[in-house]
Structure formats: structure tokens, C-alpha cells
Specification:
With 223 residues, the chain is mostly beta strands. The chain has four helices and 13 strands. It has one domain: Alpha-Beta Complex (hypothetical protein yedk fold). Strands 2, 4, 5, 6, 7, 10, 11 and 12 form an eight-stranded mixed beta sheet that branches. It is globular. The two termini are 28 Å apart. The structure holds four DNA strands.
Length: 223
DNA sequence: CCAGACGTTGTT
DNA sequence: GTCTGG
DNA sequence: CCAGACGTTGTT
DNA sequence: GTCTGG
């Protein structure tokens, strides 16, 4: 699954890579956690925009802005059918830019360290995401997103069964366009190639959500 | 028809 | 054990 | 995802 | 909002 990731580039570099406008400040964060704000790229009326949204999708029909269930991830296999995600999947697809993501071993007893996965020869993963907008009773709009997951490739699969869906730059425009036919979308959601995925074991420093700095991705083999 | 759910992961 | 907060 | 709380009353 | 179960 994908429950933590990092985005360690400046907003100007994100803007350059995705050719999207931004209007809100963003601080580099090596440890982005559920419920916190992170930049996502959407197709707006005036072209691509970078918006800060809350990680963990709040459905537009939520009464109190909370969910009784986890919405940080959506399974690629069911996202198009799910009552919760169906609407956002049709109209509100986004790219979640990431420098890398963390996975923890499913078997806690072995004491395996957390792993930091990065794209080989690239500065960004472009995760496939969906988003929604919720309006509080006071009229405040809150935008939020979920990251789509799929089967792990052979590199990630050594410690975990699932990983986030990531696409190449030539697929981005079609993914975020609201007019792309729904039938075309499923083919976007395969695993990222193992040959382009790097893995680095890191310390438990990243476990603490308050730790946001470069120490999160320091290799435990080199310290 | 209305009421109630709507999710992911990992573990046993 | 299970839920909430970050 | 992990870490931390999980409660009540009354007082500042 | 929209689907499923009864």
C-alpha cells in the first residue's frame, strides 16, 4: 500500500516538471502522512494547476467531513466500481507528485527496516490519484485526495504486496483530462517497472510523523 | 420501496 | 484490542 | 503508514 | 451521491 511518501523538490521545480500553475506555498517534506496537505496536479479551467489537498479523500456527501474508513488509497481493481470512488474516478483524476514512497514490511516480527523507493533516473513519481471537494456546514471547501494502488512489482514485492500506481509523462495529460473515456483509463494503472525502481533501507526515524527532514531517507547502511 | 454502506492492509 | 491524529 | 490514546470532574 | 441488501 502507500501510507507515506516524500516530496523533496521545491514548488518551482514541480511547476517546471508538470508545467502547472501554483498559488500556494509548499515546504519540502520528506515524510508526507495521511491527513496532511500535499500538492496535487489537476486539469483546471485554465489548464494545469497545482493545488494543496488533504491526503485521505473526503466524499462530497460526507456529513461531518470524516470517514469511518480509510480513504488514503483506492484499489486499481475496484476504483471504477466503488460507490465511494466512482464519481471522483470519472471526473476528478489528479497526479500526485512524489520523490519516493515508503513501505514497511508486512511481517513486523522480522524487524525489517522501512524501505524508501525512488524512480531510477528520474526526480519524480507521478502517482495516479483521485480527488473530491467537500463543503462544510459553514461553507468551507476542503479538497482531498486518494492514491490508487496496484500489485507490487518485484522490487517492492520483497517486503510488500501493493504499491502506488505511477505513470510516465506521456500519459499524464490523458489521465487528468476529465474527457478521457473511462474505458481507456484502466490500462494506465499497471505496476511501475521493477527495472526503474530503486530501494533503500532506512531507519525508524521516518516512523514518527513529526519528523519531516532529510534524516528520513538516510541509508541505515551508511550511518 | 427504504436503510445502510461506501475502504485498505495484513493477520489469523 | 481498536480508534484517532498526524 | 505509525504513534498514541483509550476518562471524568472541576478549576485555572 | 450511488449502489446493495432486505
Amino acid at each position: 500500500m502507500c501510507g507515506r511518501y516524500g516530496l523533496i523538490k521545491k514548488i518551482e521545480e514541480i511547476q517546471k516538471r508538470y508545467r502547472a500553475q501554483y498559488s500556494e506555498a509548499w515546504e519540502t517534506n520528506y515524510n508526507i502522512c495521511p491527513t496532511t496537505l500535499a500538492p496535487v496536479i489537476v486539469e483546471g479551467e485554465k489548464g494545469r494547476e497545482i493545488r494543496l489537498m488533504k491526503w485521505g479523500l473526503i466524499p462530497s456527501w460526507s456529513e461531518d467531513g470524516k470517514t469511518k474508513f480509510s480513504t488514503i488509497n483506492a484499489r486499481a481493481e475496484t476504483v471504477a466500481k466503488s460507490g465511494l470512488y466512482r464519481g471522483p474516478f470519472k471526473k476528478h483524476r489528479c497526479i500526485v507528485p512524489a520523490s519516493g514512497f515508503y513501505e514497511w514490511a508486512k511481517d513486523k516480527k522480522k524487524g525489517d527496516p522501512p524501505m524508501w523507493f525512488t524512480p531510477k533516473g528520474d526526480d519524480f513519481f507521478s502517482f495516479c490519484g483521485i480527488w473530491d471537494s467537500w463543503k462544510s456546514p459553514e461553507g468551507k471547501e476542503i479538497e482531498s485526495f486518494s492514491i490508487i494502488t496496484t500489485d507490487a512489482n518485484t522490487v517492492v514485492g520483497k517486503i510488500h504486496d501493493r504499491m502506488p500506481c505511477a505513470i510516465t509523462d506521456n500519459m499524464i495529460a490523458a489521465w487528468i483530462s476529465p474527457t478521457t473515456p473511462e474505458g481507456d483509463l484502466q490500462s494506465f494503472l499497471g505496476p511501475y517497472p521493477a527495472s526503474k525502481t530503486s530501494a533503500l533501507p532506512v531507519s525508524a526515524y521516518v516512523n514518527k510523523v513529526a519528523n519531516k527532514g532529510p534524516e528520513c531517507i538516510a541509508s541505515i547502511n551508511s550511518t
